Structures are given as structure tokens and as C-alpha cells.
């Protein structure tokens, strides 16, 4: 199983760092940062701003940010379409959406619909994946919730989803 991970419009440096650490631990091939997701080692920023972001991301990444292949996308839709043409399946992690492309991570039939090359897309912490990407996404996964809350923190959800995909 090969996984690439997209962090699109993730606001929190701490969530970004935690996701990077998790991604490195699971052997994710590449992490793509897009939208307003804080970038690590962003040379386009003034040095004092770059150092501040790097320091905040490092608090939870603990060095994973230097071990991963990380790509910064200026046009995520174009980059995702390119990956799709290369045979990657685009999989969005969502909850509370109404789509015939939605399947629960607990559903046994997931083995029949998931490919061995997955681009897992994570969206904004509250609003989810940008609607402009929904039409190119092949499949949406949701994590079944048993408590009263409707969602997990995005970094926790990323870990659950990556682990579940790796186990398929």
C-alpha cells in the first residue's frame, strides 16, 4: 500500500506537526501542503516568520518534518488531477456529507473499492474538504463515531485513517 497525504487548508501548526509525525511513522511517501496550511521551511516567508512557523510545527512533529518528502502545492486541483492520471486513487476523509461515494472505515466492502495507491486528502478542521475538490475525489471515507461528538481532531483522524488504509 502506497499513501500520499494532502493537507489542504489545515489552520493549526500543531495539527500539521502532529500529522507529519504520524505520516512519517506510517511511512507515507509524500505530504502535499496546500491552501493556507502552514508550510515548514517556507523560503517565501521573511526569516522571522519562517522560524516561528518551523518552531511551532516542530513542537509536535519532533523532527518528522525533516524526514518526510514534503511538497508545497500552488494549484492543488491540478496536482491532484495529475496524480489521478498517474494511477493514484483520490480519497477524501470526511464526515457528515451526503455522497454516494462515501464509505465507512468500518465497512468490510472497503477492501473492494480502495486501491493500492491512495492520495488521502484532509481538509479544513471545521468545514472539511474544499467543495471545489469534491468532483475529482474518487471515494470519501468516514470514521464511524460512537460517542456524542461528531468528529475527531484532524490529526487524530489522520492517524486513524492512515492506519486503517494500511491494514487493508
Name a few traits of the molecule.
168 residues, Alpha/beta knot, 7 strands
**CATH homologous superfamily placement:** SPOUT methyltransferase, trefoil knot domain
Radius of gyration: 15 Å
The description of the largest β-sheet is: 7 strands, parallel
How many β-strand runs?
A: 7
Beta-sheet strand percentage? 15-25%
Number of domains: 1
Looking at the structure, the CATH topology is: Alpha/beta knot
The geometry reads as globular
SS field, number of helical segments:
5
Helix and strand composition category: alpha/beta
Q: Do you know the CATH architecture?
A: 3-Layer(aba) Sandwich
Kindly report how far apart the N and C termini lie: 8 Å
Top-tier CATH class: Alpha Beta
The low-confidence runs, each spanning 5 or more residues with pLDDT under 50, are none
What would the average pLDDT be, to the nearest integer?
Answer: 96
Percent helix: 25-40%
User: Strand sequence of the main sheet, in spatial order?
Assistant: 3-2-1-6-4-7-5
Order of helices and strands: EHEHEHEEHEEH
Write up what this structure looks like:
This protein has 5 helices and 7 strands. Helix 1 (13-26) links the parallel strand 1 (2-8) and strand 2 (30-34). With 168 residues, the chain is α/β, with parallel strands linked by helices. It is globular. Helix content is 33%, strand content 20%. It has helices at 13-26, 47-61, 76-85, 110-113, 154-166; strands spanning 2-8, 30-34, 70-72, 89-93, 102-104, 117-122, 139-142. The chain has a 7-stranded parallel sheet. Helix 1 crosses helix 2. The mean pLDDT is 96. It has one domain (2-12, 24-37, 67-154, 156-166): Alpha/beta knot (3-Layer(aba) Sandwich).
Amino acid at each position: 500500500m502506497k499513501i500520499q497525504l494532502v493537507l489542504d487548508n489545515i489552520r493549526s501548526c500543531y495539527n500539521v506537526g502532529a500529522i507529519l509525525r504520524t505520516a512519517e511513522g506510517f511511512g507515507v511517501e509524500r505530504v502535499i501542503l496546500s491552501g493556507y496550511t502552514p508550510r515548514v521551511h517556507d523560503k517565501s516567508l521573511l526569516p522571522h516568520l519562517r522560524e516561528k512557523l518551523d518552531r511551532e510545527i516542530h513542537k509536535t512533529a519532533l523532527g518528522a518534518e525533516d524526514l518526510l518528502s514534503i511538497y508545497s502545492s500552488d494549484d492543488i486541483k491540478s496536482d491532484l488531477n495529475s496524480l489521478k492520471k498517474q494511477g493514484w486513487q483520490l480519497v477524501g476523509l470526511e464526515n457528515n456529507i451526503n455522497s454516494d461515494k462515501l464509505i465507512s472505515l468500518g465497512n468490510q466492502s472497503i477492501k473492494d473499492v480502495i486501491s493500492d495507491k491512495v492520495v488521502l486528502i484532509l481538509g479544513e478542521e471545521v468545514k472539511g474538504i474544499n467543495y471545489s475538490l469534491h468532483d475529482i475525489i474518487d471515494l470519501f471515507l468516514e470514521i464511524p463515531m460512537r460517542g456524542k461528538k461528531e468528529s475527531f481532531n484532524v490529526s487524530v483522524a489522520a492517524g486513524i485513517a492512515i492506519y486503517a488504509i494500511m491494514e487493508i
